[in-house]
Amino acid sequence: MSSPVAELTMIEAVNTALQHEMSVDENILVLGEDVGANGGVFRATDNLQQRFGELRVIDTPLAESLISGMAIGLAVQGFKPVAEIQFMGFIYTAFDQFICHASRMRNRTRGRLSCPMVLRAPFGGGIHAPEHHSESTEAIFAHVPGIRVVIPSSPARAYGLLLAAMRNPDPVVFLEPKRIYRAQSELVIDDGQALPLDVCFTLRQGSDLTLISWGAMLQETLQAAQSLAQQGIDAEVIDLATIKPIDKLTILESVEKTGRCVIVCEAAKTGAVAAEISAIIAEEGLTSLLAPIIRVSGHDTVMPLFKLEQYYMPSVAQIITAAKKVMEF
Amino acid sequence: MKEVAQFTINYSQTLNSTGQLNITLDALKSQGVSFEDLREFYYHMLLARTFDTKAIALQRTGRIGTYASCLGQEAISTAIGQTMQPSDVFIPGYRDAATFLCRGAKMHELLLYWGGDERGMNFEHNNQDMPYNVPIASQCCHSVGIAYAFKLRKQARVAVVVCGDGGTSEGDFYESLNAAGVWQLPIVFVVINNQWAISVPRSKQSACETLAQKAIAGGFSGEQVDGNDIVGCHLQLSKAIANARTGNGPQLIEAISYRLTDHTTADDASRYRDDQELADAWLKDPLKRLHTLLINEKISSELELQDMQTQCNAQVEQSVAQYLATPAQPVSAIFEYMYQEMPSALQQQLDELEQSLNSEV
To answer: Nearest Cα to B125, choosing from B147, B100, B150?
Structure first.
């Protein structure tokens, strides 16, 4: 029997991955606010409760620490909870359970108990959302030992990476760039094939410089690469995808080839994942560099309300400017 | 205007502080508590106290780290351990050595934990019980997931979760009670009210007359019991656990006790607590009152109880010897349990650490 193939948006791909895994693994549970009858505010869990019942698709009370703490209790009992936090802006009370318990349970009990769970949350700016609905604070999670942090950048990668996250034996924070939930459709084969959780994806081969990004910012990064190509600059584009642990090898090999690197992210600059990538290259790839690394990022400011939002988000022009700067160094 | 809700909080005590039962021994027997049970209660409480005394001595002599004593709370903690079924799951805070020992945890495991070795929480026997939980009341959320798992699998099992009086001020406590009520989960919440959250007394923790009534807001019942009365604790816990097991939902028991020593070995309660209050609290000692009952009712002889102390001493000494003889883990253990499979970036850090240790001059 052939696998269903469809043109899917990212949000549909997330839903398809959840449906697939729930149908093949009865230990998968979905929980969160409005995930049941409403199918999630973005419809990521659409139709799951109708298909798998109220016991497996759980509308929780409005309590984020409970959601992630409860997922820990389910996970130590052998279930694989996939918890949704409605927006990343509300994830911080859930983070306490993650940093204090989910990330430590295997270590704390020397492997007796573990927390195979996924915490999903839409994140990032650019959709003119209210306050607390637009931040990119993935670096906070990446700093925590014992968890994985994954960010897809296309429907197919959302499908394959979410499957991998659900099959992973350790806690995974799965951050979905909501700006591109419905931005594009692509062919997704619902064949249950997971993607690896420890490699970057090279989206464009190039020889002059390496552009590294993740999530929604890859849209601008790829556009910049295209524009640079028209100007005779051949950029390689890497989708980091797995924020923690970082696939150092792909990055270092690329920088060894190109000698130049620009890192693009929406997060506030200080302590962002871009800083970690820069440090990796400085520690292990310094001799490859022909120019300083440049970070094109958000600012160390509060994410502005949407009238000024566009000035917070890195633009194609800023990426091109940075690329030219490293080329001209 | 009309009244739309009302509630009552009951307090119960069966064995008072002078060692007298307020029911007859026959009545107690008819409620399933035999003389043998009473002797076992005493043994486990005595064992906990002997362990606790030794643990403090080990800390004072630098052989374990900071330790959170259970002195004064042996009755409620032992009652929990002796009333739960082996297949139930215990979700502790960090002052629960007595319960763990009843549940089959090895004394040397607990010493390993307090002695700075994670292997102590890799229980050999009670292997679904949760490990010690240091951040206050966060364990309550775990109990919701654990009990939800029982419900989903249609298992007749109960989650028993413990926190202190201070813990009832935490958001996680309220969130958990609320969810347990919504789903009618098989959880017994035990609040061990030992009157002090480090230096903050119960009176400054909450304006509620009782902590038990916090259950009402979660949609289920709460009650108080004399937490130093092991007989009463056992009877009330038996009912609550049986109710939870048979699908009647969660319950909260506030066990009124007293922390007879410092918060931990790193604390000095004389900075904030009145000597007279402590002296008065010793008059309600849980162990002494059960001792009095066993002797007065000729359930045990003094000689038998002395024998128990000798047995407890031997068990503690043997465990301490086993703990002290346990070699430290290899350095690689720091890395090995972070993930099921070690990511290469972590392997690199381990390699670098081992290399630096080997090349140290």
So the answer is: B100
